[in-house]
Amino acid sequence: MITKDITIEDLVDDVPGAVRYMMEQGIKCIACGEPIWGTLEEAAKEKGFDDDTIEKFVVDLNHLQENPPEDPAGGKRIETKSMDD
């Protein structure tokens, strides 16, 4: 079960689609290369979210954990080629 005290690292490991969901909510630095340390609550408060909104995140993320998307990347794939191609 997801709580506001889950670490970002555990959230990303435990919930398929968590990165996409959090980016859609405005917590974009999960995937921008800047590391986020701490909990979901700390990351959300750093971005200016109030307690009610954080509770909504918890509810939504628990739903996502119970009903993971078929493709956590949302169908977006980046094709890469080796330099030998």
Describe the structure.
Residues 62-85 are annotated as: Disordered. It comes from Salinivirga cyanobacteriivorans. Residues 2-54 form the DUF1858 domain. It holds the Pfam family DUF1858. This protein has 85 residues and is an all-alpha fold. The chain has a domain at 8-66. 45% of the residues lie in helices and 0% in strands. The protein is globular. The mean pLDDT is 82.
**Percent of sequence in beta strands:** under 5%
First and last CA, distance: 45 Å
* Total E-strand runs: 0
Helix content: 40-55%
Report the mean per-residue pLDDT as an integer: 82
Give me the oligomer status: single chain
Largest sheet: none
Low-pLDDT residue intervals, each spanning 5 or more residues? none
Structural class: mainly alpha
| Secondary-structure element pattern, one letter each | HHHH
**Count, helices:** 4
Radius of gyration: 14 Å
Shape call: globular
Quick structural summary:
The protein is built from 4 helices and no strands. It has 85 residues and is mainly alpha-helical.
Structure keywords:
85 residues; mainly alpha; 4 helices; Hybrid cluster protein-associated redox disulfide domain protein; ScdA-like_N_sf; DUF1858
